[in-house]
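We close this part of the discussion by returning to an individual protein. The encoding preserves chain order, so positions in sequence and tokens coincide. The sequence in question and its structure tokens are set out directly beneath this paragraph:

===
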Amino acid sequence: MNLSDLSQYFNRLDLIKDTANQIIKDFDMFGMEVKFSGNAYNAYEELFEQIEPHISQLIHSNQQKFMGVLYRIDLSDEQIKKAVQENSSEPFSAIVTDLIIKRELQKVVIRNHYKQP
């Protein structure tokens, strides 16, 4: 499943909540707070607005921690390079933030798909 194939899951409240919880957990491991109101209708924007400043700050001041976040979330250099090429007019931190949210959703979707009934 590609990151670009996730649009069909953006309106599933259960998956959105699980994705937000995964993001909160992963960022908390690095001492960064992310909150989620529970409103699935603007979840992407809500999470993006909180994550992007963290990513921007890490890019500019703590490259090692930035790489740790990418490793924890399981984003590869190839995924990032491809996204930068496709969205060259966007700020790097915005591109990475978008990838983070989509990758976390992808992990939740895959986990739910293989979960025992």
